Amino acid sequence: MVIFLYKNAVCFQLAFIEFIVYNVDTKAGEKMETLKDYQLNKNILCIDLKSFYASVECVLRGLDPFKTPLVVADKSRGGGSIILAVSPYLKSFGIPSRCRIFELPKNLDIIYAKPQMQTYLEYSAKVVGVYLDYISEEDLYVYSIDEAFLDITNYLKYYKKTDVALAADILNDIEQKLGLTATCGIGPNMLMAKLSMDIDAKNTRSNIAKWTYDDIPKQLWPVTPLSKMWGIGHRMEAHLNKLGLFTIGDIANYPKEKLKRRFGVLGEELWYHTHGIDLSDIKDKDRLRAKPKSFGSGQVLFRDYNETEVMTIILEMVDEVSRRLRIAKKRCKTISLTIGYTKTYGGGFSRQVTIEQPTASASIIYQTCLDLFDLYYEGYPIRTVSVHLSKLTDSKTYQYSLFEDADSLEKEYKLHETIDKIKDKFGKNAVIRTASEQEHATAKIRNKQIGGHHV
């Protein structure tokens, strides 16, 4: 079971913790110690690759990421293009990873690297290969393209090493074989390993930090602002600040029952996290990823689009999100459209509508988006578009209403399912709409990319 990585077991997990706490008739401090004793108390590593995309680009060029002013961005898209990553050298100047090209300092001879997502995936796979040289696959949880959790508990006797020494060997192997620098947090559970890496390891000379429960009050509780702790976003931070909570210790010493009343199960979960409590098990990794609660697609356009041109973009995006809906065997009830105007005008709109009958029909979703567009569009040049589908239901238990043309919708669904199979076998561009052959269309280009970036 897990608390902090997926939500569908939170209620059960917290109830289980409450059972432990309230069955110990001692002082509050002793109750917490008993709860900690029940923890897995394993040796968990959380390893993160430093400035991964930028570091890979430096390695490909034979450059030192810590001495090279390199950014990963497509300069051909203009000064407003988003930067995906900056080298550690640029980070030392306080330059954030997620900024735009025009915000970069003009006094540095910056190297621009066009994103190569397929290459980054290949390097990520090589790093995973290093992990598997040390542990078995069942003890590895790949959290993202540049971050992973490793349970090394049962390997320390085999290697005759401490967890810190084994972590150092793994980081050294990654650097020697791939030229990449990584940081590592070590803790008795996944949460503490993650926190020790985020808060502590990145500031140590060895790039390794280890936390025990004794470290929580002195290492975690002084942290401020609250959003520096994994799992607390800026909106949650603002709500907590209104309660007079400005450090993690403030939350830890705040009545748990009040947090639960204010934020529900998430407030209770947060209280346990501030005490380092987490019963996650890497062996449950097949259940760690929550099933998607929505599907969406968004893009920043290469230039300003007018009303006619953007209709094509919306249609292409509806095709993409409805395809993902069909693959997941889901239907949606809420359809959202977001339009952002060009920088000269600013603003835009984000509106949604909840339909009576859940649908997976591309035509219904597209028409709904057009209706929203007609209602709220103000006539300004458009630079960003996104389509979002939520309130998902299982498509296996669908009942058509009296006002729907069941035969027509069923034929459309089967047609798109056939197209999906062709695309799965021969690629997304094997079958495309005629509209996507127009010069202003973007589907053919985006179908050759990963995450909207060149492969």
Description:
There is one protein chain. The protein starts with 9 loop residues before the first helix and ends with a strand. The strands form 4 sheets. It has a 5-stranded mixed β-sheet with strand order 5-6-1-7-8. It contains 17 helices and 14 strands. It has helices at residues 10-22, 28-38, 52-61, 88-91, 117-134, 156-159, 163-178, 190-199, 216-220, 234-242, 248-252, 256-263, 265-274, 307-327, 362-376, 406-426, 443-446; strands at 44-49, 70-72, 85-86, 111-113, 140-144, 147-151, 182-187, 208-210, 294-305, 330-341, 348-359, 382-394, 449-450, 453-454. It has 455 residues and is α+β, with helices and mostly antiparallel strands. It has 3 domains: 10-41 and 224-281, DNA polymerase, domain 1 (Orthogonal Bundle); 43-187, Reverse transcriptase/Diguanylate cyclase domain (Alpha-Beta Plaits), CATH 3.30.70; 294-454, DNA polymerase, Y-family, little finger domain (Dna Ligase, domain 1). The radius of gyration is 25 Å and the shape is globular.
